[in-house]
Write a structure and sequence with these properties.
This protein is mainly alpha-helical and 135 residues long. It is built from 4 helices and 3 strands, in the order αααβββα.
Length: 135
């Protein structure tokens, strides 16, 4: 079930990014050619990008995941944490002595949870901060 959720979240992120890119492209095309989009072009482009997104999730690079700050949670102020910190990937409470990983955006997660998350997508599950991809 977790793998399905990860793929769906990754797909959603890819769709949002692709739709924004296509809208920008179509706007630029219209400015330079005078061609007005009647909706059919947008629909076809979105359908094609959705098919591509289903087949190719965009994981974070291995190097970017390995470079993330990792530490043992002690309940202190590391990574802007509080004593009632939760991992939004698994929804479990982060307890003292848990292995945690902090993203560059300062959000903290159980280490194994965020590493699994980043195998399928390259954005922070809280703020959508983007880690590098190979694509």
């Amino acid at each position: 079930m977790e793998d399905v959720l990860d793929r769906l979240l990754s797909l959603r992120d890819s769709m949002i990014r692709t739709c924004a890119n296509m809208r920008s492209f179509l706007d630029t095309l219209a400015q330079n050619t005078g061609d007005i989009d009647d909706g059919a072009l947008t629909e076809a482009a979105v359908r094609e990008s959705l098919e591509e997104a289903v087949l190719s999730p965009m994981p974070a690079t291995r190097a970017s995941v390995e470079a993330l700050e990792k530490f043992v949670f002690d309940g202190g102020v590391q990574c802007g944490s509080s004593s009632d910190q939760r991992c939004v990937v698994c929804l479990g409470k982060i307890l003292c002595e848990d292995q945690v990983t902090c993203l560059p955006c300062s959000h903290m997660f159980h280490g194994h949870c965020i590493e699994q998350w980043l195998r399928y997508g390259h954005v922070c599950p809280l703020c959508r901060f983007k880690l590098p991809t190979d694509y």
